[in-house]
Amino acid sequence: MPFLNHLRRWSDEQPGETALEAGTDILSYADLYGSAAALLPETGVLSTIALPNGAEFARRLAAGVSGERRCAVLDPRWPAAQTLAVRERLQAVEPTAQVPPDVTRLADGPGDSVFLYGFTSGTTSVPKAFRRTRGSWPLQVSVDLFGLSRHDRTLIPGAFCTGLSLYALAESLHAGAAVLTMPRFDVGDALASIRHRGVTRIVAVPSALRLIAARGMATGVGGAAVTSIVSGGARLDADTRQLLTRWAPAAAIHEYFGAAELSFVSSSSQLPGTAHGDATSTGVGSAFPGVIVAVRDAAGRECAEGQPGTIVVRSALVCDGYAWGDDGQAFRREGEWSTVGDQGMLDADGTLHYLARAADMIVTGGHNVYPHEVEAALESVSGVDAVVVAGRPDAARGSRVIAAVLGGPALRAASLRAAAGGLAESKRPREYYRLTELPVTPAGKISRRLLGQWIDEGGPRARRLD
What we know:
This protein is of the alpha/beta class and 466 residues long.
């Protein structure tokens, strides 16, 4: 994680400049470096952080990854029993070791050494844990690719315990930029920061970006001063992209696609005043620098252009494997190649098209249906703000395709059926639902499983649309 050497540099060169601002909690670069270094004598080889966004999180992160230390970043919103279970498992997998001798100086460790335990959902109540090496975070590459400079003020509204936000924090400190955040996501607080605190850059998941832009347009809080928006964690849909270009017309919109275990896979950039290079809603850009992307069929053969299959990567950015929880349903290595089972295809110009997580693919009547293909067709309907497609149990077909939409009151199922008419019969939704909000996880990612729960409950969040 090569940001500590840069943190020391910025502490020397711009000691009074803001490193982190969370409400009234403000750390300069000199403050952050000095207070993190002061924690080193009490910071062991392995430390855990379960804190909301703020100065204390940044201090403990810097101390926790100094030298060859390792840090586990836990979600502070986890139930106490889950947090305890994770801490116990960490103690079991980590060998006993002495505190490193570098107790007064923050410094980056070797690139091939593990510095971070990350967590992702698995098939049990305890999340899977994966290890990441310092060299697997390409901070300088993304700084250059996304045009981040030390003059930027980056708003990170999401929780630092998520991979997107944690990486954005490290990336900004590496570049000498200022980070603005909040203990928990609040769209009003985010807009207040944009209006009053000189935000030039935003890094967030699409659902948070949509909320910020929509509320900003409704309340007159424009994004004219924002020059860069980075979206990750989920596909940036066409409607949200268009909303962002209206709200922040001077902003370049950068998107990257990847997975917690793989890190960056592909990326794309849309400059101000230009159209997105890929006209479809499934395109997620070309291979990230240094990453080779391929698509393979079930027999392991490389797929032809436009043929769907499993996305695999050859990359130095992938994680170092699971510490526990390897259920065989996600990250795996196949020689030099790695995959998490995502489904997609490559077109003639090398653009990667993301179709579904392996677990999200709908098998109906013997046909494979990729949710993003159906969502792309329905997103073109006037009045539709967002679409979530999922499979529901069906005695005759195994699963049936359903679609849930967020949109205006005039939206009717007939319009959606007409748009779906261009799809193969097996891909056309059998039912349509109106949403009052998007079914998202605490990290802001779309959850098709949560949508199914809402439908089963029969509450107002997902009503049948006729």
